[in-house]
Amino acid sequence: MTTNTxxxxxxxxxxxRRSFIVTAxxxxxxxxxxxxxxxxxxxxxxxxxxxxxxxxDKADGAMPAYRAQPAKGSGWPVILVVQEIFGVHEHIKDxxxxxxxxxxxxxxxxxxxxxxxxxxYSDVQELLKQVVSKVPxxxxxxxxxxxxxxxxxxxxxxxxxxxxxxxxxxxxxWLYAAHNPRLKAGVAWYGKLVGQVNELTPRQPxxxxxxxxxxxxxxxxxxxxxxxxxxxxxxxxxLALAPSAASRASTIRVYxxxxxxxxxxxxxxxxxxxxxxxxxxxxxxxxxxGV
Length: 291
Known about the structure:
The protein is of the alpha/beta class. It contains eight helices and eight strands. An eight-stranded mixed beta sheet has the order 1-2-4-3-5-6-7-8, sandwiched between helices.
């Protein structure tokens, strides 16, 4: 499968290209999130859907991804689904199927595929050190662009483009909203807003708050120890004072008492009330902004 030539003509990237070392999606859940909390696990079937693994061709190889969409028709609005730090495991695939049941073409690329298999690590800190910390933001932006091109060539309506992401992917959602002028809207679930910068991660969401092309709905937990409420307030102020209309249209919802990863129904952090309300808001947000 080929990508749209608009994205093949992107300028050189500020990092050394690496070929893909992971060429297929894994099954099940990452070792780092075992045991899975089966009593709260939500499972969405694929009845009426086309769902499964795909590959997206790039100059340095084939990037594995998961795609779900209605089984019939075409011209579906497109939503990019960006993984947690644990990669594209069963929860992220299920989110894609949930979106497909709503009429979307949902695509979740394995954005760590050049750097290692996130599902094989049982220790979170080792995963962060060996894989996650080595992934350049510029590479992620280009890989998401390639997903948009794939969608355009495979039945998706990229004129109605959205993005949503969780944890690591929540931060990426903010960055992509400032990267792609074609984006209509984004929904960021508990993604960090501030942090250290370096060659691989040169800007944080707060740094791009005034440059959004599509408005972002941020969904955050009031009891999230990893994301201080002060940073959320700082982001709110930056959005309100931004020159970009899309930035000013963005908003952040904080769920009192909810921890980090409150949407992750396979983990003890899951909070049904906050997760359900956030999912309702996601649907309304995308509809409001033409996705």
